[in-house]
Amino acid sequence: MTFSDVVYLCLGIGALAAAVLPRVVSKRPFSLPMIFLVAGVLIQLLPLPVPAVDPVQDRLWVEHTTEVCVIVSLMGAGLAIDRPFGLRRWSSTWRLLGVTMPLTVVAVAALAWGLLDWPPAVALLLGAVLAPTDPVLAGEVRVGEPLGTEHEEDDAHRSHQ
Q1: Which end of the chain is more exposed for a tag (fewer CB within 10 A), N or C?
Q2: Euclidean distance between CA atoms 151 and 81, whole angstroms
Q3: pTM
């Protein structure tokens, strides 16, 4: 069995687990990412020839792997959104992205510059790093069965407010 065979086997088991485990853990006090994290730790602890990854030495490989993980995660979150595209339907998301996130960047940068006496460029970088990006979009993702029509979603959305 070659190394590529093992990689494909692990990817297949991971895809199967990602398809089956959400129903298994839906009523449990832990989440799917927690299960995969524990599985990764257990695999690393086994006396198997698992390659050690050095993020500095293997920078290019690690960078591309993390990019693929982010793309797959964002695609999954985007597919979970059960809302037709439109300015009015997405108004809360536009406000969060266009108002709240930039104000957070400016506020954190101003605090770092004023209180910590950091240079403006470093303070702005800190504000950009700490700005709420994924939570802004993930707040719009609802977990549950897809609704039949857009009117049903509007009614369900109003009942939760």
Answers
A1: C
A2: 15
A3: 0.44
